[in-house]
Structure formats: C-alpha cells, structure tokens
Specification:
The chain is built from seven helices and 17 strands. By secondary structure, the chain is α+β, with helices and mostly antiparallel strands. The chain has one domain: Porin (Beta Barrel), CATH 2.40.160.210. The strands form two sheets. The chain has a 15-stranded antiparallel sheet that branches. A two-stranded antiparallel ribbon has the order 4-5. A hairpin with a 2-residue loop joins strand 15 and strand 16. Helix 2 crosses helix 4. The longest helix is centred in the N-terminal third of the chain and has 16 residues.
C-alpha cells in the first residue's frame, strides 16, 4: 500500500499543538463516564526463528520483557519471571487501571510475555483472552500449558490467577516470528482518512489511570460525535501512542488495541459501561516507529451483547493488528460520573 496515513516525521512533543477545544473536552468527559468498563476485559527486530536457544534462555533467566527498554513504564509493568516449570510470576500495576481494575489489554500483554518466553518465539501472532473475574493490582501467577510446538508456529495457553481469588483470566495464543512471515498480501480495506497527528486535537488524560499512559488525538470537531443518538455511527478513529515515547512493537499492540473508548459513546453517550468478556488481538506486522492509526466500530448490539472491532495501522500505512471484543452493555447503577470522579469497580 503506497498511501501513508500520516507523516513519519511527526514531532514526539506536543509543542505547538493548539489548546484543547470544547469538542475535545466533550469527548474527554464521555470517556470518564464509560471507558472504565474496558478495564474488566477488558522496536526490537528479532530475526531468530522460534525455539532459538538464546531467546529461550532470556525467558528463563530472571525477567522477560526487561532489558534495554526497561526505562519505559510498559516494559517494567509487564516484566515476568519464571518461578518453576510452566509457572510464571508478575505484578499487576495500578498504573494501568481502569477504575479500580487493571485494563484487559494490559492483562493480555502480561500473558503474552509469559507465553512468548515459554514457547521461545519472538512474536505473538494472535492472542485470545477470556476474563473470568475482575483482576486487582498486585502479584499474579501464570500457569502455562504448551499445546503444540511447530516449526513455524507454536500454540500455548496460560491461566492467570491471584492469591485468594483463583483464576482471573485465561489466554490462548499462536506464536511465531513476524520477520519470517512471507506470502500473498491482499487488502480490501484502507486506513481511515484522518489528518496527520499534528493537525488533530489532543484528548487530554482523564481520571482513569490507563488513559494517562497514552497520547490520543482525534480529528478536529470529533467531540460532536458523542451521544448523537440511535442514528449515529458507532465508530471512532484516532491516533494513539505511548505518552512516554516508547515505540510500539508486537508485544505492546495487545494493550494499545484496548486503548480507545467504546464506539457506543457515539450513540449512548455516558449512559453505561461495556465490561469485556472476550478479547482477541491478531498481530500482522511489527509496527514502524511513531503513531498508530486506529479505527474501532460496533455494528451490532443485541440483547445487551456487542462486538467492538478494531484495526490498527502504523505511520507507513501498514496494517499491524486487528482486534475484536465481545462485551456486555451495562446500564449504570448510579448517576453518571463527573469529570475527575473515580469509577467504581466493575463486576461481571
């Protein structure tokens, strides 16, 4: 694909960005009300094939997911260590909380670390998570099961649990080496038409902790998209990147795929939340440095259940990830939150 959705020369600072508009503040307020429901769910260029001995040792010796990038919050907060054969340990940080529970994409990123190190493959190709109960910040243990080890791809599963609470989530995945993926390419879709990041409006961080970890920019005037009613299109397009400047890679895409508010904000405004029951993220390529161009959409809300489909492109116009969530639309049990309020814990 030759068309680039944005310039690869975008500045890594917000200097010169126009102040937040009224429309952007309107969208930000809606995110405060609704985004916390996602928390219930809700680079490096390795070229070695799976089962490379050096990669396997790196997954066994101390922490996986640390090293030359451990200055970044994401890498520190997704670091895991092997404690026994098939057993891994990590720490869920409240920095990725949506309300009082860790974001679902954050749990998936930690699970992906455990699984990639266990099968000795550099990249997750697909991850699917089922969220059994809300997680809490603190220690987490992963019990890994190797399902199949292949020459080009491997399959494994991990059950995350916390002391005194039992299993909180289970993830299955397909793993390989994206640098060695070759074959036919055919795209029927194209990146969304959005102005370059410097011409878009920043959505300032809100009271939700996970929102502070990202910088998000939307098209000018997109705040009018919030709460338009039954005839509105439940779709959101935005540029996304880590607030601390960390580059995206195959491991961080699981988290970034869960970084936008639910598209149903367009229809229902801040009426409720959408606790995620299942999340699948497919990684198609290692993203180029810079912003991710994201489009999420909900087309079917039936009897309280909805899907949230996402596609994610890098600044070079390459499709790097696809995502789908199954979520439940939950009506609020108390009046909508005000700006700066902390959402209550979400239960299933």
């Amino acid at each position: 694909m030759s068309r680039k959705p944005g310039s690869s020369q975008v500045s890594t600072t917000t200097t010169g960005v126009p102040p937040e508009s009224t429309s952007s503040r309107s969208l930000r307020s809606g995110i405060v009300h609704l985004q916390h429901g996602l928390g219930y769910a809700s680079g490096s260029r390795h070229t070695a094939p799976c089962h490379n001995s050096r990669f396997a040792v790196a997954g066994q010796a101390g922490a996986a997911g640390t090293g030359r990038m451990d200055a970044f919050v994401f890498d520190r907060d997704t670091a895991v260590r092997r404690v026994a054969n098939g057993v891994w340990a990590g720490e869920l940080s409240s920095r990725w909380n949506a309300g009082t529970v860790p974001n679902g994409g954050y749990l998936m990123a930690i699970a992906g670390r455990m699984l990639c190190a266990s099968v000795a493959c550099p990249d997750p190709l697909s991850l699917t998570g089922h969220y059994l109960q809300p997680a809490q910040p603190g220690p987490v243990t992963g019990q890994v099961e190797l399902l199949r080890r292949g020459r080009r791809v491997s399959f494994a599963a991990v059950t995350l649990s916390q002391r005194g609470r039992g299993a909180i989530a289970r993830f299955t995945g397909v793993f390989g080496d994206l640098a060695q993926q070759t074959g036919e390419t055919r795209l029927e879709g194209v990146p969304p038409r959005l102005p370059p990041p410097v011409a878009c409006e920043p959505v300032e961080p809100v009271a939700i902790e996970v929102a502070k970890r990202f910088e998000r920019r939307v098209a000018p005037g997109v705040g009018a998209w919030l709460g338009q009613g039954a005839d509105a299109r439940a779709e959101l397009c935005a540029w996304v990147r880590f607030a601390d400047g960390r580059a995206q890679d195959a491991h961080s895409l699981a988290l970034s795929a869960d970084a936008l508010p639910p598209p149903l904000l367009a229809v229902y405004g801040a009426r409720g939340w959408t606790p995620t029951l299942e999340l699948t993220v497919q990684i198609r390529a290692r993203p180029a440095p810079g912003w991710l161009l994201c489009r999420t959409r909900t087309r079917y809300l039936t009897r309280g259940l909805l899907e949230n489909d996402g596609e994610f492109w890098d600044e070079q116009g390459e499709l790097v990830a696809l995502a789908r969530q199954l979520a439940r639309f939950a009506e609020p049990e108390r009046p909508p939150l005000g700006l700066g309020d902390v959402p209550p814990s979400v239960s299933g």
